[in-house]
């Protein structure tokens, strides 16, 4: 055995024959409680209870693959290791003076561990397959798998709301501004996320809401601040938008960003930034309460429906934008997945109200399963592929467990390694 994480796993789950344990000094040992795994610095397990001979000890336990690792890890220079109650090793290859001086017994487990556990671990950790558990995932209990997916989806959400927490600091705790930045960022649809975020931070929500009842002014603010009106336009409708922005630019001392930060390459025309900006402007104009009160907005009823412009409003638009303003259901669902659901989850956590977290999950269940390079790794006949709740969970599982081979932290890997009863 060469992996300390595996050895910790074996100790934590007591995957060894504990019926006849003795220390290297021949003292009988009974493991009453292996303790709690420590994920920070210090001894590996806290609050263990071990009976050595006739004495029951409570305290911390340190684990190493080889006893000599004690010196490699420089524990001999750290007095916090003087007070452990037991030093557990897979292989005893060196006497440790510090243990001897502090009357710390050493337990060697090499002959008490089933070789099959180590061989199974080596099997999944050495595979070159993108999904280490691909050969046995379908044997995993379906109910347990659904519970594990729930946890994976929660983890995915918690990861996403870290970005919102940063926005909240940027916007001085104004929730609407945090949502606005996240939502506008999501309008970049991956390729232009950073550019759209920069635009949102350069164009305050308060200003957008001030003019949200006027489509011409909303278009002028978004296009102008994005730098798309810096060149002279020939189309009279573009000129009207350009003139409106010059007025607003002077009035509010606005400074446009450079449009070169937006990317057109490697994307279909419907995803070109100047089209997405128009769609965003129309959404703000049609649904201003989405941004002024996002925590109260009825997303299921009002967000996914088509918000068409009337004839008078269409006359404001340059010809190249007409007919391109309606977001597809796929695009709307991506906004739900990447902006709205994470915000509601964040809001629920912030005010300690699980209702909003459940609404967030409900929105994910309302969106289609995302079939991509990561989710395709999982077997079709095992995964229901019902909604984005599943796909978001699988993306988290793939990114944070499978690719890093953190099988010892995954319910599927743990089930595989556990001895069959």
Keywords, separated by commas or semicolons:
single chain, 421 residues, alpha/beta, 18 helices
Question: How would you characterize the overall build of this protein?
Answer:
This protein has 421 residues and is of the alpha/beta class. It folds into three domains: 4-113, no CATH class; 133-170 and 335-421, no CATH class; 174-327, no CATH class. Helices cover 47% and strands 10% of the residues. The chain has helices at 4-12, 69-72, 97-101, 115-126, 142-170, 175-186, 193-202, 205-210, 215-225, 236-252, 273-286, 289-292, 299-302, 311-314, 329-351, 354-366, 388-402, 411-417; strands at residues 21-22, 28-33, 36-37, 45-52, 55-66, 86-91, 105-108. Strands 1, 2, 3, 4, 5, 6 and 7 form a seven-stranded mixed sheet that branches. Helix 5 crosses helix 6 (175-186) and helix 9 (215-225) packs across helix 10. The longest helix is centred in the middle third of the chain and has 29 residues, at 142-170. The chain is elongated. It starts with a helix and ends with a helix. The model has no long low-confidence stretch (mean pLDDT 93).
């Amino acid at each position: 055995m060469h992996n300390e994480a595996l050895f910790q796993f074996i100790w934590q789950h007591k995957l060894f024959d504990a019926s006849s344990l003795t220390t290297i000094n021949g003292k009988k040992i009974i493991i009453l409680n292996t303790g709690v795994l420590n994920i920070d610095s210090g001894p590996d397990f806290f609050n263990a209870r071990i009976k050595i001979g006739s004495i029951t000890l409570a305290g911390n336990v340190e684990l190493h693959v080889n006893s000599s690792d004690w010196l490699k890890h420089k524990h001999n220079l750290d007095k916090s290791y003087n007070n452990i109650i037991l030093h557990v090793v897979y292989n005893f290859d060196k006497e440790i003076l510090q243990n001897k001086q502090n009357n710390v017994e050493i337990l060697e487990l090499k002959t008490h561990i089933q070789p099959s556990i180590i061989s199974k671990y080596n099997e999944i950790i050495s595979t070159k397959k993108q999904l280490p558990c691909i050969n046995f995932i379908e044997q995993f209990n379906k109910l347990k798998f659904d519970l594990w997916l729930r946890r994976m989806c929660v983890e995915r959400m918690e990861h996403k709301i870290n970005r919102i927490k940063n926005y909240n600091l940027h916007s001085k705790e104004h929730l609407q501004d945090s949502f606005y930045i996240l939502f506008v960022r999501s309008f970049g649809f991956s390729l232009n996320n950073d550019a759209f975020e920069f635009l949102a931070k350069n164009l305050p929500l308060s200003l957008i809401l001030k003019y949200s009842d006027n489509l011409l002014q909303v278009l002028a603010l978004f296009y102008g601040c994005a730098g798309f009106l810096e060149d002279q336009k020939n189309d009279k409708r573009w000129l009207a938008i350009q003139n409106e922005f010059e007025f607003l630019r002077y009035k509010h001392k606005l400074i446009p960003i450079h449009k070169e930060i937006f990317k057109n390459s490697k994307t279909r025309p419907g995803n070109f930034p100047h089209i997405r900006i128009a769609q965003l402007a129309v959404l703000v104009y049609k649904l201003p309460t989405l941004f002024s009160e996002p925590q109260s907005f009825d997303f299921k009823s009002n967000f996914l429906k088509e918000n068409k412009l009337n004839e008078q409003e269409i006359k404001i638009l340059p010809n190249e934008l007409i007919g391109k303003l309606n977001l597809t259901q796929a695009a709307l669902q991506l906004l739900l997945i990447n902006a709205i659901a994470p915000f509601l989850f964040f809001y629920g956590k912030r005010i300690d109200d699980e209702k909003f977290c459940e609404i967030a999950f409900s929105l994910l269940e309302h969106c289609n399963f995302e079939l991509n390079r990561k989710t395709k790794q999982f077997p079709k006949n095992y995964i229901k592929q019902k909604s984005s709740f599943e796909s978001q969970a699988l993306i988290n599982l793939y990114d944070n467990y499978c690719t890093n081979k953190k099988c010892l932290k995954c319910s599927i890997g743990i089930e595989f390694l556990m001895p069959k009863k």
